[in-house]
TrEMBL record, chains A, B:
PROSITE patterns from the UniProt entry: HTH_TETR_2
Signal peptide, first to last residue: none
Residue stretches making up the HTH tetR-type domain: 25-85
Annotated protein name in UniProt: TetR family transcriptional regulator
Key words, A-Z: DNA-binding, Transcription, Transcription regulation
Length: 212, 212
């Protein structure tokens, strides 16, 4: 299942799957799947171009030529994950949308081991870290629509920073699952989303505003 | 500087410093300082009992006997960091307290390289991950007082979950600095704190409540 929560679906294979045909696309699909499998099964230290080539049953010079090294492989896994058709849910309210996004993020982080493994790998490889940041930036941009819809409905004031709204709503789920390693906490996910929706409706995420 | 933000001060040396005298305390201080230095300068991969012993100018059998391995060394660095007198600021309002905590977390994460390095190391060592979790749990418990004071002032209703309030308020700072590697964003830190304070005042962090 390719749950596509903001920043959660980095295990998704949609990108490679939906490009039909082509030997090149097939090789890419095999190689990226091998990277994901090895990362989950054996961790970052076991990743090498040779190990990936062997697992993918692809000639190693092909892998070296196209991806160069482990950083290149990880970056492409992340780029491929972002290359899907995911859109945030449209529930009719900002609170509903952010709550639904948080639910997807939580499912992605707890249910797809490759997600946490890729984020862990971002601490080992600069290329992976940059690709992860690109992935998240792009997801935050897609999520901006939930704030734009809220603005159109008059739920939040002009000038509300969509990115900060989405980061503030989703961050507690990452903290709980990824950094605290505390497992899913659906109450936290829901309360954090509702809290940010309320705060945004009161103008607390207007750019240049804010207390203090 | 030993900035003691919730979960930020993991570079602090207060614990070892304030135990006066004693050869054992002195050795511990030297060894833990060596771990922090090596971690920042050369990263996790360069850490070994031998390298730490050499840097600390302590006999390696002493280090092996007391800390056993790199995991034991990292865990003790984290345990020592938590063993300080840090208390959350008391500004008179929940919003002020959470904003001040977020400021300290941001300073800790951006200003003390060992903090981010220890969090990165938690993805390499189970013992470090467990110690980091202990450290955070203990900081969250100390921060509970900001919610208790808010309750006493009538700012938040009975049943408000202090831990979730603190996690929700601080998580965006970790997301921004550590996972997005986006550097400090004081506006986000302030808005997230103010948003959670407002949401808590409206009862959104009451246990068993919450929308959805």
């Amino acid at each position: 299942m390719t749950a596509g929560g903001a920043a959660s679906a980095i295990g998704g294979t949609a990108a490679v799957v939906r490009r039909p045909g082509g030997r090149s696309a097939r090789i890419r699909a095999q190689v990226l799947e091998a990277v994901r499998e090895l990362l989950v099964e054996q961790g970052f230290d076991a990743l090498s171009v040779d190990a990936v080539a062997e697992r993918a049953a692809v000639h190693r010079t092909t892998v070296y030529r196209r991806w160069r090294d482990v950083g290149g492989l990880l970056a492409d896994v992340l780029d491929a994950a972002g290359d899907d058709g995911w859109q945030p849910p449209d529930t009719g309210t900002l609170e509903g949308d952010l709550t639904a996004v948080n639910g997807e993020v939580e499912v992605g982080l707890t249910g797809e081991p490759v997600t946490a493994a890729l984020i862990a790998a971002s601490f080992r490889s600069t290329q992976a870290a940059e690709a992860l940041r690109r992935f998240w930036d792009e997801r935050y941009e897609r999520c901006a629509v939930v704030v734009e819809r809220a603005l159109a409905r008059g739920e939040v004031p002009e000038g509300t920073c969509a990115r900060r709204v989405v980061v503030a709503a989703t961050a507690p789920v990452y903290q709980q699952v990824l950094l605290l390693r505390g497992g899913a906490d659906p109450t936290l996910a829901r309360q954090a989303a509702a809290g940010v929706a309320l705060a945004a409706s009161q103008g607390l995420f207007v750019v240049g505003e804010g207390p203090g």
